Amino acid sequence: RRAGGGKGMIWLSNVGCKGDETNVEWCPHSPWGRHDCDHEMDAGVCCIGKGKPAGEKAPGPSYACAGGENKVDNGSTRLVGCKNAGCRLEVRHNDEWGTVCDGGFTEKNAKVVCRSLGLPGGFVVKRYGGNYNMQGFGKVWLSDVHCNGAESWVGSCRHKGWGDNRCSHSDDVGVCCGDRPQYGSVREMRTAGIHVPPCQPKGASVRFFEACNHRGRRGDLYQGEYPKLSAASCDNDSEQCRVDSCSVPPGALSSMSIPAGVRVTLFSQYFFGGSTRAFTGPVDVRCLVSYGWNDRARSVKIETV
Prior knowledge:
7-stranded mixed β-sheet; 17 strands; 26% strand; single chain; 7% helix; mainly beta
């Protein structure tokens, strides 16, 4: 008692746990931040003994997003219904588990979730319920969640109110703990079971041709970043969008037509590495060999100027 020495906010007072709670925040207490204490009254805790033995591994496959488990649960927050892409986030309120709506859910929120579960990193998987057919059931407890990053669990973050939302379980948010994987193409994402929304081409487009002087097979790429051009298709990974009209193999990108206000930067290596060459429209590049490019590009960026 009276360990003292703290700084900043004093969040809890008059805490009265029964002893079977898995999180001190679930114990009865005065409203958050309401007290007549100072930091000389900061409580201290000393843990003695070996502690609670680790439980058995949850049955089922292992998923990196759940720290190598089938699911992970700390009593107030859990990740369940896991796939390679992520897990459905659920929180407990009034002794009832419910889901979280993805509206306004950010990467900062995901990191709070993962830290509360003892896992690293964290990123959001939007509409996990609908996109992956992993809808929860029962209550949708939270929406419009805004964490500042220092909270001990996601229920402490600002939100619209418990159960106050118009979300369906198709909007259930997913979370994956760890670093966001890097995929070289949309095809790789689909192979890994990652949902890719349908293409919605937008912005300026550039027409590429497989032969000099705008001859041969042609294909269009829209504004965006293309880190890995494929001989079969060109996938817009920046927008997670497949450009179905693109069919320009990297070894036969010989000429292009660039409209005004658009800059095209070619890279000799995948993921924007190696040597580069930029062209700003309006310009018809009749033959890349004439520019010393050797008729080859592995990745492309298209942007407005």
